[in-house]
Amino acid sequence: MDGVGEDDLAGRTGADPGGPLPVVERFVDNHGVRLNVATAGSGRPVLLLHGFPDSWRLWRHQIRLLAARGYRVIAPDLRGFGRSSRPSDVADYRMSVLVDDIVVVLDKAGVDHAAVVGHDWGAALAWRLAGSVPHRVERLVVVSVGHPAASVVADVRQGDRNRRSEYLRWFLTPGVAERMLPRDDWRMFRDWGWHGAEPNTDPDCDRQIADLSRPGALTAGLNWYRANLGRAAVSHSDPGAPVLSRIACPTMGVWSAEDQFLTESQMTGSEQFVSGRWRYERLPCDHWIPVRAADEFGQLLLDFV
Questions:
Q1: Is the pTM of this model over 0.85?
Q2: Tell me: the pLDDT tens digits for 123-134?
Q3: pLDDT value, residue 232
Q4: Catalytic residue among 61, 119, 147, 287
Q5: Cβ–Cβ contacts within 10 Å for residue 173, how many?
Q6: 280 has catalytic annotation
Q7: Which one from 211, 225, 259, 286 is the annotated catalytic residue?
Q8: What is the pLDDT of residues 234-267, one digit of tens each?
Q9: What CATH code is assigned to 6-160+240-304?
Q10: Is 16 a catalytic residue?
């Protein structure tokens, strides 16, 4: 199912909900998949990649800050999310396909290389981008999710990883999460991702639920897991996954002390897979760092990029 209507094809300009700087949204086409790309500011490019289940609006605080400080911010809705297309085939969400989306976004923007920042699945994609097309990544900031090889090591060494990732069992089985998450006004989703947030009490939780409630949106988001972690990842050969190469550019890993999904070891262990300069930062919040620790994280970005 496609994520946008024909009347959405023109570029549009609107106020960033987090501040007065204008954010311009335009669609980029990649073999029939339309990617909504938000841009703001001018100067050295910074590419922001969100995760599940989000959109470019996750970065609204950082977009405002970076654009005001003289950076050109490029923040796409990744395929399956936001106003971008939502292909129905699980194979359309393989990591190599996702990397190609980002290369097209950079090409259409006339950007040869950029500082790349990713959160959650966006971090996994950022690792892959830096490993497969290193000349496009000037420096790398990975938030919450460590290098894929470090995650494998953490799975073996750290028992509570299994507890934290129990949700993957029902994310990976088609139809299960689609039935469970929306029940009782998305109660399970609120408990799982947002500490039981009630309706109209957390704008980011409500924003995610509104996005996921659109036809086909929940399955599209879950297809990121199914294409890269589930049976589809095994049954369909993907020459782009997993990335095991060492990352040569300066890299900063950011993890949150109250992350409910991911252990610290999978982030700190990423250092051994980075040959460039490595920096690690730990913030006192839960998984949703760009909105839970917006100011602290924003300052880290300014310092690093």
A1: yes
A2: 999 999 999 999
A3: 53
A4: 287
A5: 14
A6: no
A7: 225
A8: 445 565 554 467 999 999 999 999 999 999 999 9
A9: 3.40.50.1820
A10: no
